[in-house]
Amino acid sequence: MQLRQSITYSHRDSKSLYDGITRAIANAQNVGAAVLFSYSQDWDCANPLLLLASKADSQQPKFYWEEANADLILAAAGTVAEIAIANQDGGDRFDLAKKFIENHLDLAISADDGNVNLSASAIHVLGAFSFYENTGDACADLPDFCEYRTEIEFPSLLFFIPRWLLRHSSSSCILTINDQIQPWDEVDAVLARLEHWRSHLQATSYYQSPTLHEISQIKEVQGRQGWTEIVERALQLIHQGHFQKVVLARAIDVLANRAFDPFQILHVLRCEYPECISFLLDCGMGKTFLGATPEIVLQFKAQGDRLRLRSDALAGSIGRGKTLQEDRLLAEQLLHSEKDRREHQFVIRSICDRLQTMGANIDPQVNTKLLKLSNVQHLHTPITAEIYNSNWLMILDILQQLHPTAAVGGVPRDRAVCFMQQWEACDRGWYAAPIGWLNGNGEGTFGVGIRSGYIQGDRARIFAGAGIVANSQVENEQSETTIKFAALLKALGAL
Ligand SMILES: C=C(O[C@@H]1C=C(C(=O)O)C=C[C@H]1O)C(=O)O
Predict the structure, then answer these.
(1) The Chorismate-utilising enzyme C-terminal domain covers which part of the protein (predicted)?
(2) In which band, very low, low, confident or very high, does the pLDDT at 70 lie, cut at 50, 70 and 90?
(3) Is the peptide bond preceding residue 143 cis, with omega within 30 degrees of 0?
């Protein structure tokens, strides 16, 4: 089955917009339920993050996504359809995500002003998964687990279709307004609703950034053991052959004297890390998850019956030098480190094996390079593949297979993940899990939610992890996480 958004109208005149809405109302009447309608048009906006900050109210879900390298910014707010699955709900969340998309995109009607390409006019679904499918379930027999839950909880799946979305690139800037059309709707009422949102977004508004905060406390989250002791325990288990690799995260709580401004923090990240994907996801309940990730877990594009896929192997890390020469020496050290190469190979293997299990043909050209960010350099191998399937929604099955890769989980995955759940100081929530977007044109990107943290009022909890393999040195792994923390600490004004 080829599921795509059912119809796209290009409207150079108001009659055809009228026809599109009429068709959506007919669809809604046929199925006896609401049907999505979207209208896209050229829009003038130089700063999508500022638009989001000034237009979205605090109760609304918000999403921001910036891939500077791919020349793409998405800024969106509000919701016309949403699925939020709590950790305890059970059910297969990837399957539920798929059904959500099918239910909403299958009968959706899109219209545009005639100047919009298919990618921009397609309806976008935005969201994230939590790291663990069902917190505590995989290790139900482990004692005292609940004590270590994070205080900031996020759904195990959150997908939403925004009320409005701005898709910005250097060549175009398109605004899409989405609406739910009811069987009893009338065309004029729908037109009035579209006009309401259009003028809301067009009205001049100013973003008043809150008064700058000061940091009052920075404190490592303590579990039942300190992080270095957990790393030592993991090394013993690696030595005994229990697992070969486990990625262990530390968490730090940062407290300020007044509320943090998530938009300001994201702005710092996007300027400092242009090679990364800057992201922000706010459920509309005063909690924001944000970060700047260098890692893509799955990027895809449907081309006829084929799906082009990309997934990044990113593992093996070292700091940046203060001088060019020191930086080069560190780079050489990383490129020739047997331990880091081995750690990196685990990730390449885990991604390739799982893609092959799904029937994908991996492109034979696989090149490992250095990825240099302002605070850290990594071994980086983009893996590209192709799979034949007429239903692009199988990407959710692929995502389910890939997550967590050995870059943020371990090898073998189940044993490593169980250890992490048992020993890490707190639940990961959305940290190191897939976050991103897809659209009705069969394309999308999910990043790995690392170099990230949660903001809730005057509190932030940030995460950083490191891959532990045989011969890992505890102090080196700890300083690696300290280097990684620097990104968020700096953006929070805590460094
Ligand atoms: C787990 C994190 O990073 C991951 C672990 C890496 C490593 O161990 O070298 C490198 C990149 C990421 O895949 C993190 O940043 O929190």
Answers:
(1) 224-484
(2) confident
(3) no
Task: Read off the pLDDT of residues 275-314 as tens digits, 9 standing for 90 and up.
Answer: 999 999 998 888 999 999 999 999 999 998 899 999 999 9
Domains belonging to the chain, first-starting first, are: 7-202 (no CATH), 215-492 (3.60.120.10)
CA 11 to chain centre: 33
**Which of 77, 104, 97 shows the shortest CA–CA distance to 158?**
97
Closest CA to 104 of 86, 74, 79, 129: 79
- CA of 21 relative to ligand 1 center, distance in Å: 48
Q: pLDDT value at position 13?
A: 54
Q: Residue 405 CA: which ligand 1 atom is closest?
A: 13
Give the residue whose CA is nearest to atom 13 of ligand 1: 407
The reply to whether the predicted model has a pTM over 0.90 is yes
Whether residue 72 is predicted with pLDDT greater than 70 in this model: the reply is yes
Four-residue CA torsion sign, 40, 41, 46, 52:
negative
314 Cβ closer than 6 Å to some ligand 1 atom: yes
Q: Which atom number of ligand 1 is nearest to the Cα of residue 467?
A: 8
* pLDDT value of residue 14: 63
Which residues on neighbouring strands pair with residue 331, listed in sequence order? none
Q: Which residues contact 210 (CB under 8 A, 6 or more apart)?
A: 258, 259, 261
DSSP string over 408-463: TSEESHHHHHHHHHHHSSS--TTTTSEEEEEETTTEEEEEE--SEEEEETTEEEEE
Strand segments (E) across 81-222: 81-85, 109-112, 124-129, 157-161, 164-168, 173-181, 215-220
Query: What is the rounded distance in angstroms from the CA atom of residue 206 to the CA atom of residue 331?
Result: 45
Judge whether 295 counts as a catalytic residue: yes
List 67, 295, 343, 480, catalytic entry: 295
Please work out whether the CB of residue 420 comes within 6 Å of at least one atom of ligand 1. no
Residue 231, burial from CB neighbour count under 10 angstroms (0-12, 13-18, 19+): buried
What is the per-residue pLDDT across 226-254, written as a single tens digit (0 to 9) for each?
999 999 999 999 999 999 999 999 999 99
For residue 466 and ligand 1, the question of a CB distance below 6 A is answered with: yes
Strands 109-112 and 7-10, sheet pairing: parallel
Cβ(408) to ligand 1 under 6 A? yes
Peptide bond into 412 cis (omega under 30): yes
> Does ligand 1 have an atom closer than 6 angstroms to the CB of 316?
yes
